[in-house]
Amino acid sequence: MERLGDCSVLLLQPQEFKLFQAFILAEAGITLSDKKHTLVQTRLTSRIHQLNLTSFIQYYKLIVGKGGAMEAQRAIDLLTTNETYFFREPKHFEMLRELAKAATAERRGLRVWSAASSSGEEAYSIAMVLDDAQGALPWEVLGSDISARMLRRARNGHYPDVRTTHLPLHYRRQYCLKGTGVEAGTLLVKPELREKVQFTHVNLVKPLVDIGNFDVIFLRNVMIYFNLEQKQQVIARIATTLKPGGTLMIGHSESLQGIESNFQLLAPAIYRLT
Fold first, then answer.
1. Do 181 and 232 belong to one domain?
2. Considering the entire predicted model, what is its pTM?
């Protein structure tokens, strides 16, 4: 540890960085490139100080040691990047609206999974579309994430306005409350909608818990962190939870190229299970 003035600066050594690379790969399936060295150092330093530890190796031993499961989850929370906002990639929500209207004509409620829901903006965007298109039909939305910290934020449904730039005005008025006073500049998803969205912890690189089957799955901007073998395994798991003919949405920077599956490309980043 080096001291600069009154501040203690922990330096992450290359051999220590490799340990954390192996940890997050094993626990979350995320491949951290060598370019993420500074990110890991920055995100873990304050936590190490909070625990009154003096080195990264001490912290590593804590999270992999016996009884370190809770702190290991905290480390996963710190090392996973979560960037999202309402109605990200609008074409996907246009497709969801079409699917919802078609299901409504059949008097059938859709069941949709936001499989990497982060702080919940995606799951609530889905819920707004379903509530608007399906009304009183028994539609369901499940949001899941590997980060317990993100799941807590998602359940609160409270967001800064910067995350709501793409939120349609009529949805904002119908489903959200505007923050005032000390909450000015924020938005709260109305309780009536929050109650219809369930959030749970799911690690996509581990065997899935029983969460039932879905008509639509959003698996967006998460496979960019996986290698090809992990992508293959995740897609195989996802396919077991999608109903025949169901729809899979992935990020526009992602593809299923090189992955064996029964998915047929419908439109950019949109697939159907055949």
1. yes
2. 0.84
